[in-house]
């Protein structure tokens, strides 16, 4: 694949990660503000659910389009255009009052996120040398996680002191970070750069082969994304059930609930940096995917263990371990995707994985909401953990099969490359990693 030649461009990485963190904070600031406002004004559960769905659906439905935009249009133009559009939309949200208008505007805001996510994700590998990719990925993930942490907390503070308009105005300003990043980042993708020759990948295949690249043609990537989506769909209900389990079943205060939920996010941060260091030792993509299975198993196991605690504070170390596994798996997944996908197709690849994750999360939310109507939280959490482990067991054989196929293909490429000039021309007919 085409990584940057020469040294890594860390100033560009810093700008991209800062923009992602600030914009993510703006996303969660706006969504939390609107949810709090609608709930407090008696708009009802349907309106709140509509906001949550509107904030997620565009990421799923528009992934094929936004992924192609990220690969074909100048990244600078996309960041500037989407950042300005999101800022204007959030500005209008500050003055919108009708619930239907609010839902429509939040959907438009999420459409901008559907554009900027694959653009920033695909830019990171183009900024650094392959050896520095785990560290850059951890930085990018850290920025996003900090934004997720800061957004709701800032929304609660600002709504409490100033009402809904001020936090939405702050959110509108946060999207301008994307505009600044677009103007200052030197690394660029898409546009006229698609026609420029780029360096060859490790197998000797030029990035021009990206024209015919499709995710479903890579069995290892298919197995990785399908496993991740399956586990998220099975365990994702915990995000809906958790508040009822902590607050009602365990009788915890709002402050304790915030501490518990923050523990998982802190674990994600720690896991990203711990496993970014370990990822450098893996040169085999299949080994990274298999390691990811164990980390997903750790997440499911922690969900299952959480039902045994008598008090909510004991959930903190359990959630911390689960978050570490979650963060490590994310680093491994992003690294495998960046390694195997041609540079010119990375926007599509990251958009496809994001759509799978968001779509699976939506399934989890729906299942959790329905089951809470007929059952208590504790048995539902047991069901989440068991379901996640069963999904993982179901994917063990497909992952092993994809691993064998991939290693056989890599061995064939190595054999052709070692055959000298007679075999050199045949190597380009092997599918791109």
From TrEMBL:
InterPro entries: MFS_dom, MFS_trans_sf, TM_effector. Its main location: membrane. Pfam families: MFS_3 (PF05977). It is a multi-pass membrane protein. The keyword Transmembrane applies. The chain crosses the membrane at residues 43-65, 77-94, 100-126, 138-162, 168-186, 220-245, 257-276, 288-312, 318-337, 349-368, 380-399. Keywords: Cell membrane, Membrane, Transmembrane, Transmembrane helix, Transport. Coiled coil: none annotated. SUPFAM superfamilies: MFS general substrate transporter. CDD domains: MFS_MefA_like. Residues 1-189, 218-433 form the Major facilitator superfamily (MFS) profile domain. It is found in: Cell membrane. The keyword Transport applies. This is MFS transporter. The lineage of its organism: Bacteria, Bacillati, Actinomycetota, Actinomycetes, Micromonosporales.
